[in-house]
Amino acid sequence: MLESIIKSEQAIRETLNDFNANNLLDSVDFAALHNLYNAMEPIKLAVERLSQEDATLGSADIILEFMFKKLLTINSEISKELHDNLKKRIDERLNKDVMNLLKSLKDPSVPPSKFTLTFAGRLASRLFGFNDGNDEDEFSQPDESDNINLSLKDELNLLLYKDQTSTTIGSDFKWLKSEFTLYKNTGQRTENLQKIYNALLSIKPTSTDVERVFSICTNFCTKIRSRLQQIISEESEKELADWVIEHAERGDPLLKTDVLQAATQFDMLQNNPPRFGKDGPSKKWFNNFMSRNPKITFRKPEPLGKAAAVVCEEDVDRFFYYFRNWLEKNDLLHLLNRPEAFMNLDETGFDLNAAPNKVLAKRGAKTVYTVHSAKVHDRITVTFCFNAAGETLRPQIIFKKNFSGLLQVAYASGQAGTDFLFCKSEDGWQTQSTFFEYVKKLEDQDLTNKNIERPVIIFVMVISLTSTMNSSNGAKRDKSLS
User: Fold this and answer.
1) Residues 51 and 170 in one domain
2) Which sequence ranges are marked TM in the entry (predicted)?
3) Sheet strands (E) in 127-234
4) Which residues, other chains included, contact 437 with Cβ-Cβ below 8 Å and sequence gap of 6+?
């Protein structure tokens, strides 16, 4: 981010100069930004190199020396402060035993100290099983089974001899002294020293690589756990995903609640008892469902007129082809000669609380309310029905349940010479009961009054699926409506 700001400094100055607004840069200290960027550059480079897979303790020593040298070369207040703090922090975390041994193994002119030799001996003993090289003593030692035949003086001499010739874990390894001396004189590491040197180079200078590995494992395991949390079968999820995409492609996109309801139905069919519980699918399940189906995402739909939604002539031809087959299958081809038998039913709604325009309010206010006399979702719904012969059947007007002016509305419609079917619902929306009631009245009264023979076919538009299915089932039972 600093780099992008610094690189765009000149462009920023030229732009502000064009607007005569150079004063906006008075509070911006670009010199401090340059100093900070220059100081962070060697640190960034050092971190990147230390995080590489081929980084070793040997290369780490060179990288850190380079970083400290460059920070001192910059010679700014920021770089000096970074140098001091980083050096202090690294010295606190530095394993001096390992680094001192590595320096002695890298440079034959650096003799190992007594503590370094002791550490090297312990390391070799732990990694390779090396000992101090005194397995065979210069003098043969009596077997402990013969100790019972020794005098007290001989037993004491034997204990003193063992103490002088044996090497404990904390003592200097004599063979290491000899091999380091040989290394100093020849400049070539012995086989044992090379093994220790290779072991030291296998140590990673930082834990970045390990953290990266565990991060990848964590992400992988998280994805696996998400897949294992499927409550409905994979086939059902695929069917659900295809259903969502199909609705979106034909201009009828689904909501999150539609997916949750469908998942609940699958759960009730596949699991006994249902695993979703009484509250239905959780937010976590839905998020996992979206992760398992990346081809589905949230989008803001664009309104499209019904006429424009007919994208090609083939779709229209396909509809009439399937419709004619359906008529033939149900022995209704004779209706094609009766235009009054084909009806179109549609609804529209008028919200009692229309969406308000933008209003003026105090800047920073979290919520701005506007009080309405009606409930937020209250509306009046009007349903119309026409047939292909141009005849109009009585429209239906749905008021909210507590509407008190029904008589006045009926009187006004009578004065205007119009005839409506009035009913009520909880909030003025079309429901299953109001829809079925309207269709039933059309069948019992309007079709009879207009001398329209049964059966008739009603094309229903924008009515809830539940209502349509129930009404359709009712129509099939009496064979008068299709």
Assistant:
1) no
2) none
3) none
4) 423
Q: Residue 395, Cα to own-chain centre: how many angstroms?
A: 49
Gap between the Cα atoms of 113 and 117, Å rounded:
6
Write out pLDDT tens, residues 285-310: 888 888 888 888 888 776 665 555 55
The long-range contacts involving 129-136, CB below 8 angstroms and separated by at least 24 positions, are: 130/173, 130/175, 130/192, 131/167, 132/166, 132/167, 132/171, 132/173, 132/174, 132/175, 133/173, 133/174, 133/175, 134/165, 134/166, 134/167, 134/174
Whole-structure pTM over 0.70, yes or no?
Answer: no
CA distance 119 to 113: 10
**pLDDT, tens digit (0-9, with 9 covering 90-100), for 436-462:** 888 888 888 888 888 898 899 988 865
- Our count of domains for the chain comes to 4
Tokens encoding 82: 């970074």
Same domain for 69 and 133?
A: no
Nearest to 347 by CA among 396, 309, 311, 393: 396
**8 and 60 both lie in a single domain:** yes
- ω into 42 cis (within 30 of 0): no
Q: Which residues 6+ apart lie within 8 Å of 294 measured at CB?
A: none
CB atoms within 10 A of CB 110: 15
